[in-house]
Amino acid sequence: MALLSFPSFGLHYTTTGSGNWADPTIWSTDGGATHCFCVPPTSVSGDTVTVSHDLVLNSHLTATNSAQINVLASGSLDATGRRLTVTDNGEVNLYGDCTFSRMINGTAAGLSGGTINVLGSIVHLAGPINANAGVINIFGFLYQTAGNIQIEPNGTINFTSGGKFESFNGNINNYGTLTLCATCCMTTSGNWTNEIGGVVSGTGSATSTTGNMNNFGSFDPAITWCSAGFDTGMTSPEDCTTSNTTCSFVSLPVELSDFYGSAMEYHNLLAWVTQTEKDCETFIVTKSQDGYIWEEIGRVTCAGNSTSANFYEFKDVNVTDGISYYRLQQIDVDGTVHYSQPISISNRASQKLMTYPNPISSGDQVFIAGIEGEGTLNIRNAAGMIVSSEEISLSNGESASVDSRYLNSGMYIVEFSNGKDLKTTKFIIR
């Protein structure tokens, strides 16, 4: 059977099975009714390509001339080492997990952009992001192991619905427009710079885990920020507690909800919450020093089947200098594996408190980690009044807990003092 190559007449290619993009037996142009024994071009112009299975792509991928590329939640696209480029009103919608080496929107001149939507997926990048023009909307998680992100004057990136970006080895430079929703975060291990003419708006968080925070443009003071290094021109006081809480919260697959991490005095503490569980067998805790190569460091047994919240902890006692990255693997009884989004912990945060889950609903318990030894635990309301106080003694990384049944909705400040040092953190009751 000859391999057909169609010109661009608005065809709609859909997958009928998993495999390699170049396989002519897994594509259809009639909605999956029959095989077309054809392959969509990797420079998609005017056509629509929908991926609902797991594909491997060995070429660069381009959406141009109002073309549309969709990776559905039932599918994935492994284009390791390959670029994704969108120009001339092309549109890319990523619901399933994807891997690329680079993401480019628009031409180098800052014109002819399109739209890239990261919709609930985990997108792995091993190279830079060039937002030359058009719009990148991030609803899911964009995870960059290397490379800078450059937003040019005609480029726009919007973070909505808890969207997050994390760069493990690069700088953020914004000359364009950037918006962050209240639960959204944009963080890097390099320098975070809003350049002259750049606009950063919203109420989310921006952090630099090892670099500097610099503002030379318009930076909304409602955005919380935290810098491991120096800061220049920031429009509000540094608030590492709030921004690190926002940036460490991730939504995990299936029944898992929250995954937190914090550096303690002698170890890194990981904590996570499941709202419901079905046929869960175990959690594998993995660790990486570069965000790329992962190794197993421990296992925690699941509750199995549950319709109520379950809280889990794991201590990494082999703490090294700098940043460590952590990721969970949820293994079901049938062998199905679900991966969490990664989180990072810097030893700069050592000896701080951590509350989890956060926020909570009225009546739930909030747990407080990072207390070691004897001291006084105070809970203050947003007005600074003490609403709870007790003498406690904890060791070996135990967590304290607070019953919220008698507390009103709002923000609360946690204080622990051993007579010499004072540690603080916050939690919110919805």
List keywords for this structure.
430 residues, Immunoglobulin-like, 1 helix, mainly beta, 44 strands, 19-stranded mixed β-sheet
Any overview of this molecule?
The protein is an all-beta fold and 430 residues long. It has three domains: 12-245; 250-348, Immunoglobulins (Immunoglobulin-like, Sandwich); 351-430, Macroglobulin (MG2) domain (Immunoglobulin-like, Sandwich). 2% of the residues lie in helices and 50% in strands. The protein has one helix and 44 strands. The strands form six sheets. It has a 19-stranded mixed sheet that branches. Strands 2-6-9-12-15-17-19-22-25-28 form a ten-stranded parallel sheet, with helices on one face. Strand 30 and strand 31 form a beta hairpin. The longest helix is centred in the middle third of the chain and has 9 residues, at 240-248. It is globular, with a radius of gyration of 23 Å. The relative contact order is 0.07. Residues 1-8 and 249-254 have low confidence and may be disordered.
Summarize the structure.
The protein is mainly β and 430 residues long. The chain has one helix and 44 strands.
